[in-house]
Amino acid sequence: MKSNFYKSILVILSALFFSGNMLAQSNYRFHSHNDYAQDFPFWKAYIHGASSIEADIFLKKDQLFVTHAEEEINPDFTLENLYLKPLADLAKAGKLRKVQLLIDLKSEAKPSLKKLVETLKSYPELTKSDKISFVISGNRPKTTEYKNYPDVIEFDHQDLSDLAEADLSKVALISQNFRDYSVWNGLGRITAPELKKVEAAIKKAHDAGKPFRFWGAPDTRTAWSRFAEMGVDFINTDKPAEASAYLETLDARKFELKTSISVYHPKFDYDKNAKPKNIILMIGDGNGLSQISSAVFANRGELTLAQLKNIGLVKTSSFDDLVTDSAAGGTAMATGEKTNNRAIGTDKDGKDLPNLTEIFAEKGFLNGIITTDFVTGATPSSFFAHVVERDDSEAILKDLTKSNVDFFMAAGASDFSKIADQFIQKDISEFNDLENQTAVFLSENALADVSVRGDQFPEYVKKALQNLEQQDKPYFLMIEAAKIDKNGHINNASGIVEEMLDFDKTIAEVLKVADKNKNTLVVITADHETSGFGIMQGDLENGQIEGGFLTHDHTGTIIPLFSYGPGAELFNGVYENTEVFHRILKAVE
Questions:
Q1: Which residues bind Zn(2+) (predicted)?
Q2: Is 56 annotated as a binding residue?
Q3: Which domains does the chain have, with CATH numbers?
Q4: d(C-alpha 484, C-alpha 501), whole Å
Q5: What angle do CA 325, 291, 567 make, to 5 degrees?
Q6: pLDDT tens digits, residue range 360-390?
Q7: CA 551, chain centre distance (Å)
């Protein structure tokens, strides 16, 4: 008999379904192979959205047992107990979703089928439902005999050679042994000759108007993705929970760049021994090496950023945590000191720290901030504010009115009234001088995605640089691409790549100015990495990538830094994020 614990778990699982707490099926269907071997047969696959569930059965003493072999029979594991009764309960409760029960006959076909048909007569809520199909696999009768069985019974056809002449009216799907076509283990890429054979088998089934499944197939994430791309209708797996989670997010983790962006090739004709007149610090929020890599691959192997030669690696931990947030990460670069997460412009004890805009103002620099976030965002505010809590927007805006920031460009014009007395708001077309502290807004509220806003960000940066170049003072400019981080938090691979490509267009505009004046140091880095993003596979020729994620949060991964212009060599090596501040100041000394 089942233990009380096992019964209790089944009751809990049943309650989840009857209360409506079921996982939705993804755009890709998968088949729970060897389902009887799961911790909770039927339920584990069903709760994770399996479109097809396999029940291996063996007829013995007029009972249909769920087992792979006669010697493995468990008296409690009958087809009715594990599959038919739960399905019937769901149907009665109105909770049954569309599912295929693939019944793999391990005992002789005709007597097993006779018993199955007899058993199903006790479950009219299933046999009369359009939500469930009963498909016979394993030991099957001859194809010509399929028509002799009631309509409730369909078959898993396993022969590709007779599709033209066979009666397929009772065939629910076509299955093949993957090992007849390939030895691929599901890691890396399948070889081209084997891929051709695999795709040809799938096409034959589809040309016959039937869905397709491989058994004996590799059961890895890479394989699931490849099979989904090939059009396998039921992806075979022994890991329904993992396959469900992977396939449910597959589309959101894919990206294809239809048209490549142009790449600027820097001239490198500056005097590397000279002192820079101007400093431009560019921060891709959440922008780790994989985020950059994804944009490189999507853009067919090239980015403007990837043309740079001076490269460093930056450790990003905050004072009180291995993994920093944007506030502590921004503060480290703006002030040269580690602080606690959530703190902006203050040290570990809450005391104000001098920042780059304050220091450069004393040196006669103009100071500007450009961000795709609100100006009160953690990263931009690290360069002018002093608060112990990053969400204290009112205090941050108050500090902005007292700051040495000559202009800013940011999202969120709706909050402008709070600082209207200090900063004069201008449209980008009117931004032609810096006689007063000036605010230019990219949007009324939060900034739209790149697909909506187009090249707004690089164009605004270009306009700001034109203005700064007309002044007779040196300048410090902090530019943040904030939405790389935001897309990392929601695990949106497309958004990450699109925002990184937008950042690269912006980098191109900055490097063009640096090449023209030959006296600007450009430092490009991140405050931290977000999401543990990785490149799982892709197609360089077609600009396709598939990403994967470790988390929805920040990570402690070391991030890259690229530098260009006089003083760029100061930024080579591996160092703490606080060194960004110190090396910038060293460059202008």
A1: 285, 485, 489, 527-528
A2: no
A3: 4-19+26-248 (3.20.20.190), 256-588 (3.40.720.10)
A4: 10
A5: 80
A6: 999 999 999 999 999 999 999 999 999 999 9
A7: 9
